[in-house]
Design goal:
Helices cover 31% and strands 24% of the residues. By secondary structure, it is an alpha/beta fold. Strands 1, 2, 3, 4, 5, 6 and 7 form a seven-stranded mixed beta sheet that branches. Helix 4 crosses helix 5.
Length: 192
């Protein structure tokens, strides 16, 4: 089975392809000739995932799935949330985003946070949503060289290292994206 993943983020594509069974091949937006930036104008993570999936299905006619992820920090009333990728402004810059977040939490004792991923699947005219959440805390400094985005400052519950300090296998096992993707896979497998 071929499914379009509404992304050109090589890190995300690699992470999800590692989780999918061998019989599911992912096509990126580039693979289907979609070179435009898909608007992410919704007020919620769910809304952006739906917008992206619908864009590909409506404009290109493919069954597809799309995800959106946000980091929700308790002390910041859920920010950066839906604005996580551009928290420090345009263009999107992971280091600037992390620096701004660490600065915002400088005097804060409550460092609890969660990553939330929502995957929207458009398949055979029907739409399904799958949500994965990873709870944890924001570390006081960047730790680790793996991963991407906020991974160097997110320490998941029950672990002493950040996502960026873990093997990709362990991160995929416990991460928000891993959880949402396993729900997607279970759904796809149930269709056989």
């Amino acid at each position: 089975m071929q499914l379009v993943f509404a992304s050109n983020n090589k890190n995300k594509i690699r992470e999800i392809q590692q989780l999918l069974p061998e019989n599911i091949q992912i096509l990126s937006l580039t693979d289907i000739g979609c070179h435009e930036e898909i608007p992410e104008t919704a007020e919620t993570i769910e809304g952006n995932a739906i917008l992206k999936a619908n864009y590909v299905t409506d404009k290109y006619g493919y069954d597809c799935f799309a995800d959106d992820t946000g980091l929700e920090v308790t002390a910041l009333d859920g920010a950066p949330g839906v604005y996580s990728a551009r928290y420090a402004g345009e263009p999107s810059d992971s280091n600037a985003n992390m620096d701004k977040l660490l600065d915002a939490l400088n005097e804060e004792t409550n460092r609890s946070a969660q990553f939330k991923t929502v995957i929207t699947l458009n398949l055979k005219g029907k739409q399904q949503l799958f949500t994965g959440i990873a709870k944890g805390v924001i570390s006081s400094k960047k730790i680790g060289k793996e991963g991407f985005g906020y991974d160097p400052i997110f320490q998941p519950e029950s672990y002493s290292e950040t996502f960026a300090d873990m093997s990709s296998e362990l991160k995929n096992k416990i991460s928000h994206r891993g959880k949402a993707t396993r729900l997607l896979i279970a759904f796809l497998n149930s269709l056989k």
